[in-house]
Amino acid sequence: MKHFINEKHDMVTEAIDGTIAASGGKLTRLDGYPHIRVVVRSDWDKSKVALVSGGGSGHEPAHAGFVGEGMLTAAVCGDVFASPSVDAVLAAILAVTGPAGCLLIVKNYTGDRLNFGLAAERARAFGHKVSVVIVDDDVALPNLPQARGLAGTLFVHKIVGAMAEGGANLEACTIAAKRVIAGSRSIGLSLDTCSVPGSLKEDRIPFGMAELGLGIHGEAGVAQVASAGAADAIAKMIEALVADMPRTPHVALINNLGGASCLEMAILTNNLLGSEIGQYIRLVVGPSAMMTALDMHGFSISLCELADGDEGFLKAPAKVTGWPGCNSVTTPAVLPLPDGLTPIRAPASAHAPTREFLTDCCKVLIAAENDLNLLDAKSGDGDTGSTLAGAARALIDAMDRLPLADHTQLYRAIGLELSQTMGGSSGVLLAIFFAAAGDASSSGMTMRDALMAGLDRMRQIGGANPGDRTMVDALLPALNALSAGLPQAAAAARKGAKYTATLTSAKAGRASYINAEQLEGHIDPGAEAVARLFEHLAS
Prior knowledge:
The protein is α/β, with parallel strands linked by helices. It folds into two domains: 8-196 and 204-328, Rossmann fold; 345-538, DhaL domain (Serine Threonine Protein Phosphatase 5, Tetratricopeptide repeat).
């Protein structure tokens, strides 16, 4: 099973019950399971205009996650990617509508239009005041007569929700909703399709491609385009968003379609705000998962023109779980590093042979990046090659400020550089190694003895010993054999690296959390890096 569910037919009701149970009493539901699934504000007293929305499930936190003070009064939940029934929508209207009336916020899909529309007619027949607005913010196909409703729907929920909370009447809420819809535009992009529980996954997007202009139900986008990173993705989406876009202040909503990591979403946000339309974005909502397509590895961007008063409505408190808040876009002041973190460096000095030697060593590590990452993926998190290559690139960039003519100071300078540019425990351990080697060199030790002193200090602090399946298994024998010559040191390093492939348990590093079956036959990536370095030097 690829999903954490129980029975397929119980998915939506169990999800609703979990949402309500965790709401702290803010939410409740109507009776009527499993055919009528309506989440309602617990504190609703029918004195104000009610806002009702909903649609198919699978878009969580939409729509139940936006029920509460300041946003929706009720959400009607259908099956996954399926419109709720007329009776379910009607039950919601009748349950929450008082003399002030009710506004239905409907996304522009045929099933939603029909079911919400007929429910509105039946509610009017009961004597209720009901208005309906249709959200059609998708700009993927500009000539489409009926554009889809996407995450721009949330602008309506929030702005009109704040108005209704403040006592605005049904006519004012309806006019504002139509204005917000007219000023909203959205487009989505994904690297993969979503996985619908109980159905086969459709793998229609090849590796290296992305789908542009897709909806929130797993349906295909308008085009498959080359995927060339975050900035390229934003540029492709902006091309569609800027068509007929007024150059006035806007709010941007950055929506995770369900499967993008928080890291990716933050990068995409940075690229959006730094793009050609960034100058028109005054407010930002997210990045966050707000209207998802189950686990789709993609995101959408929604823009909305700001009218007078909208900023206050968008920033007004909303006691709901799904709204991440709305913030002003500002340029933050960057604080300087504290004095204690600004190292005292030895003066730079030139020495061509040392520069060439160091540069060659760095190039070996950069060339080995992908191979070391693949090895690390067998026993760790797959980033050893990138970590070492990043440190190597940083050292090459720092070459002009290193004391190349003074090897004692050079060891210390390399240690400082690695401590600032190399992430994780590897950076700390190698910084300790070179700092201790510099201290040993200053007392008159030979290069080999100074490096051995550095290794001893690194082992003492890091706790790694021979047989623990780390770089020590290759580095210690290499340094022991160095007095006999570089070829002997390289052979010893390679023998030590191969030895790590026979070890089925690690006592240090991330590999210590991996079982024997995954470790056996795979060389430790740190030991492999040491072996490759010495083999290059010997050649």
